[in-house]
Structure formats: C-alpha cells, structure tokens
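== Sequence and structure of one protein ==
=== Format: two labelled lines per protein ===
==== Data for this protein ====
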Amino acid sequence: MTGSPAISARGLTKRYGSTTALDDVTFDLPANTICGLFGRNGAGKTTLMSILTAQNFATAGEARIFGEEPYENTRVLPRICFVRESQRYPEDSVAVHAFAMARLFFPNWDQDFAERLIADFRLPMSTRIRKLSRGQASAVGVIIGLASRAEVTFFDEPYLGLDAVARQIFYDRLLEDYTEHPRTIVLSSHLIDEVADLIERVLVVDEGKLVLDDDADDLRGRAFTVVGPEQAVDALIGEREELHRDHLGPIASATVMGQLTPAEHEEMSRSGLSTTPVSLQELIVRLTQHADAERAATSKGA
C-alpha cells in the first residue's frame, strides 16, 4: 500500500457490559478503494462503521479517517457519508428535503447525478419518506450515498430493500461513478456474490474479530474444491489446510486452501477426481466456519 490510508483502525474494541461487539480490530484501508465488509448478523460490522464515522465510541483503540480522529472534527466529517438500511429522517420529510439537506452538507454533491438516480429508481419525490415502500426508502439512502461523492462512503446494506433490478442499477451506477470519481467506498453486505466483481479489498468480521483482511484479487483462486473417492482426495490434499468436507457415500468433496500444480492436475485425471473453483462467497463462508472451529477447539482445550 502506498501513501497514507484513508481509513485506519488500531486495536478497536467495543464492549457493552459483558458483551464484546468488537475485539482488537486493526487494519488499514487505502484511499480510492472499494472494500467489501462481510460477516454474519451481529458480527460487529455496523459497530465498526459507527465508530469509524464518529457515531459511536470505542471502549479501546483508535479510529482514523485520513489520519485524523473523526469525532467532532469539521475537517473530516464533511468528507464522510454513512448510509444505513435503517436510516431515519424527520417525521414529515419527503425525498426532496433529504436531498436538499445532503446538498448543503456534502461539498462534492452532484445534483445532476442525483436527478439521474431519482429517475433510475423511479423515486416519488412528494411522498413522505415514512410512507414510501421499503425499496423506495432504500433508494433515498442509496442516492445520497452516491450523489454525495464523499471521499469516504459507507453503505451499511441500505440496498437490501431494493429488488434485483434496482440493486443492479445501484451496482452499475456505483462502478460507473467510481471509475470517473474515485473515492473510498465500504460496502457491508450479505450478498457477497452480487458485489464480488465490484470489490477490491475484503474485510471479514466474525464475533467481533477481524478474521480476514486481504485484496480481493489475491483471494480469488486461493482455494479449490476437489471431488472424488475419499482416499484419492486425501492423497491429493496432502498437508494442505482443509476448510470444509462433505460426504456422499464413498465420495468426498473437500474445500482446500492452495493451488494445484500441473503434475497434480494430471494425477487427478488418473485418480478419477474433479475440481471446481471456489467463489469469493464460498471462500468467505468456509474461512469464517473454519475460524469458528479453531476458536471452539482453543476454548475447549483451555
């Protein structure tokens, strides 16, 4: 990574009584990167984003945006946009009010782009936001997140209310605008396969711990699944790290870290084995499950 990071976390920890929502999270995210933030419900994703955007406080550790503490920092806060699925607006607000406020707050706001997005999402402008459908209300947040062109933008799954067509519009417009106006974007999502082609960096949080921090390109191709007679599968895997295994009678399917050599590809054909690539979503799921199993084994042995 060259240059100063756009987002930095050092030992971020958040406790609510006896519950630890974040546990010693440390990472750097470079500027002008689209990052996928993944993890199960309750893993700590929203807590992490809330601390990074100065909407929550860490129990320990430090959060930095462009090297500065964001809380009550007028040099930093206008450069951040945080859009969440449960975004709240004043009781009588209509979409035009929300966009007018955003236009005042975000110095890079693009009104022409906002109007294009309003048309793309077919958003009614005179209906109170609380009366909009879930998808229409989601579109309000998505439009603000995109048209703000904030240097650091967090999307905490605001697009889940959108149908498949509208989500694709969101992905298309995000990528088009990011290409012309690079900035740092963090997408929190459970729809990993849908956003896989967008993201350049991957962060995975599980039970408050950061279990994966890597470039998306480096992750692709890092694992494979081999299927065939179990004895032949075992021989091929050797000492590689196994993430998951399924059985169907004498046939085994194993997901394994690593890559196959040309000689191993030839051996597979002779042994009646087949292999398939592992999608980013499957890899993240398997790595998370593997981390769970390791923590359970450690806890049991303690």
Observations:
- The chain has two domains: 5-218, 223-301.
- The longest helix spans residues 280-301.
- Residues 117 and 143 are 6 Å apart (CA to CA).
